[in-house]
Amino acid sequence: MATKRWFTLLRNAAIGLAAAATAASFATPAVADQPPSTNVVGGTRAAQGEFPFMVRLSMGCGGALYTSQIVLTAAHCVSRTGANSSITATVGVVDLQSTSAKKVKSTYVYRSPTYGTATGGDWALIKLASPVTGLATLPIATTSSLNTGSFSIAGWGAASEGGAQQRYLLKAQVPFVPDSTCKAQGGSYGRLIPNAELCAGNVSAGGVDTCQGDSGGPMFRRDDAGAWIQVGITSWGDGCARPHAPGVYTEVSTFASAIADAAKKI
Ligand code: ARG
């Protein structure tokens, strides 16, 4: 089962984070010095305030503000449902070292009860000790109608397979990949759960993808009114940005009512 690999990737993400804590690995060129569209993998720097709902979680995952006090992330980023004050959420900044970063502790974790079953459901909610103010939340898709087209991905995870966690938020765009194409890539992709998982990436060329440490972060697009809406949660992939190995995201619309119900209760 792919679960085992997820944990491996998570552990790698944690190791990467520890490495990134040294000043040397945070030596990053200014935005203007960056080559365009080269480095998430195959991404570019997000502007401050561009994605106000983005959350960095202390265990080395991403997330999105579902409400001002609840972060939506991946089930494989957390251990269990219950009281939990061990997670720190960093919000409001693209630069994790910025002095204007807001840091809030968790109080409770809700892990999808269907995660790890045949139903799938790699999602979890983290309740924060207090609401964060002045940051837009990211609504989730409640139908499958927007599970197509081009998606935005973002995160502080590795910018190349096996690479270091990032100080600055990276973003990229990836095209929708049909379940049939995704499954046909073989290996772990043969175990894709079509209703629970949504694939995205450049299938034949690779090159653009989420990577270790981006897990739990949102995959999102514009809705028909032009507003950001979340369609996926970064879940897994075979390596990062490899050809014939698209990124796999939790299909948020499938779990939208379960997420809403859980959020009401925590
Ligand atoms: N599971 C990884 C994490 O813990 C995310 C992997 C995403 N991989 C990919 N190729 N899209 O951060």
TrEMBL record:
Gene3D superfamilies listed in its UniProt record: Trypsin-like serine proteases
GO biological process, one term: proteolysis
Keyword list, A-Z: Disulfide bond, Hydrolase, Protease, Serine protease, Signal
Record bears the keyword Repeat: no
UniProt feature coiled coil, ranges: none
Peptidase S1 domain boundaries: 40-264
SMART domains assigned: Tryp_SPc (SM00020)
GO MF terms, alphabetically ordered: peptidase activity
Signal peptide: 1-32
InterPro entries xrefs: Peptidase_S1_PA, Peptidase_S1_PA_chymotrypsin, Peptidase_S1A, Trypsin_dom, TRYPSIN_HIS, TRYPSIN_SER
The protein's name: Serine protease
Organism from which the protein derives: Amycolatopsis samaneae
Species classification: Bacteria, Bacillati, Actinomycetota, Actinomycetes, Pseudonocardiales
